[in-house]
């Protein structure tokens, strides 16, 4: 591979990850106009990797064109949230059950340590709480052994995460007991318990959102 092409790809990947994180954290809020040149200047990259990163995000549905054809950050509606959560309820309990067979003890221990740190901290950093949530749900997807299922979980969680964060619906310590039940089932390699714990966790998250309306 040409060295310059490799550098461009690396920059595009880094730019994509940065923008994805800003969208998921709602630093780039829904409805915001995406100005390629301004973003490129802010991140200190040329317009080529920026254009590549924006194209990927648009392809994933996180950036959309408004009626005037202007690129904007997608606004995640309640309908989007509920549809995404319905998909998660269909597949994540099965992923959790399958993960019992494949997830390694070290990953479970890391997740438990993160959850213990959140529980012990009277005012945990929200970024760390979200990092744990991401690590748990993505870890379950990856450990399911089904890459298509894992990818769908990642995609659906993006919509639910953005919605919850843009409306500031997450609690300081959301779902501690739910998450602990999931980890206990994974530790015990109890597939049916993991399935039930994940179902309960997602359903309670859905109900909490509906209760806020």
From TrEMBL:
Keywords: Coiled coil, DNA-binding, Transcription, Transcription regulation. It comes from the Bacteria. SUPFAM superfamilies: GntR ligand-binding domain-like, Winged helix' DNA-binding domain. Residues 9-75 form the HTH gntR-type domain. PROSITE patterns: HTH_GNTR. InterPro entries: GntR_C (IPR011711), TF_FadR/GntR_C (IPR008920), Tscrpt_reg_HTH_GntR (IPR000524), WH-like_DNA-bd_sf (IPR036388), WH_DNA-bd_sf (IPR036390). One of its GO terms (molecular function) is DNA binding. This is GntR family transcriptional regulator. It comes from Rhizobium straminoryzae.
């Amino acid at each position: 591979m040409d060295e310059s092409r490799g550098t461009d790809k690396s920059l595009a990947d880094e730019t994509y990850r940065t923008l994805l994180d800003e969208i998921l954290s709602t630093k780039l809020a829904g409805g915001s106009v995406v100005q390629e040149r301004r973003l490129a200047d802010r991140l200190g990259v040329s317009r080529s990797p920026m254009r590549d990163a924006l194209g990927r995000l648009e392809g994933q549905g996180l950036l959309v064109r408004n009626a005037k054809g202007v690129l904007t950050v997608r606004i995640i509606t309640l309908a989007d949230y509920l549809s995404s959560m319905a998909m998660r309820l269909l597949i994540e309990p099965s992923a959790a059950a399958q993960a019992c067979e494949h997830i390694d003890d070290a990953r479970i221990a890391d997740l438990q340590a993160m959850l213990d740190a959140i529980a012990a901290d009277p005012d945990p950093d929200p970024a760390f709480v979200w990092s744990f949530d991401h690590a748990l749900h993505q870890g379950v997807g990856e450990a399911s052994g089904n890459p298509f299922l894992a990818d769908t979980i990642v995609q659906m969680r993006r919509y639910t995460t953005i919605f919850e964060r843009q409306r500031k619906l997450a609690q300081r310590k959301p779902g501690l007991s739910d998450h602990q039940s999931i980890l206990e089932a994974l530790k015990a390699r109890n597939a049916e318990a993991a399935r039930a714990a994940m179902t309960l966790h997602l359903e309670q998250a859905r109900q909490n959102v509906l209760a806020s309306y």
